Amino acid sequence: MRAILFAAGRGERMKPLTERTPKALLEVGGKALIVRQIERLAAAGIREVVVNVSHFGEQVEARLGDGSRFGVSILWSREAEPLETAGAIAWARDLLGPEPFLALSADIHTAFDYACLVPVAQAIARDPAAQAAHFVLVDNPPWHAKGDMGLEAGLVVRGGPTLTYANISVFHPALFDGVTAGTRLALFPWSYRFVDERRVTGERYAGDWDNVGTPAQLAALDRRLTP
Fold this sequence. Notes:
Layout (H helix, E strand, L loop, with lengths): L2 E4 L20 E2 L2 E2 H11 L4 E6 L3 H8 L8 E6 L5 H8 L1 H4 L4 E5 L2 E3 L7 H9 L6 E6 L10 E4 L2 E3 L4 E10 L20 H5 L3 E6 L3 E3 L3 H11 L2
Parallel strand pairs: 1-4, 1-6, 4-5, 8-12
Antiparallel strand pairs: 2-3, 6-11, 7-13, 8-11, 9-10, 9-11
């Protein structure tokens, strides 16, 4: 299974730290956020990683190279301007190949075991008409108390008690057939059509997870991870 790491955002809420440094290269506990993600992917046996870049993308490429020192092979998807999540996947479609792939943000920190999603991807590959995607959800953090979507009997639903999208998912590439390469397109609400078709499974993860969106969140995580 391949993975795509989203690292093209401008990190507007992270200013002034992102005025000269891409958000993905900001460090916690002495290590860049994106490096921590790549190391976890490698530990899960995921060896082919697509990284999308735009804002200060040359810095990200210079830091990571071909990925070999992290135990992975990195393919670069370069965007002139950030295309959002769904748009980034459509742009990188040829790099991702024909099989279901893992999609995750470079700026989250989590102990989630990505190896658990390999059998999920295999199930999606067997019958994408029935199961086309899978979302990992977490309890609503204070800064996103309203949540994003619900979970009922293993299916993602709109309504009911809500959880927050963890920026971790698996997709069948055919979902993006109708998205023209170069289109700027957010994952939501675009992907809700597949939720309404009851083709999106999900799971609640209750372990360590941080979405690093502001300097205060970055500093708090850095304190927690620094020995």
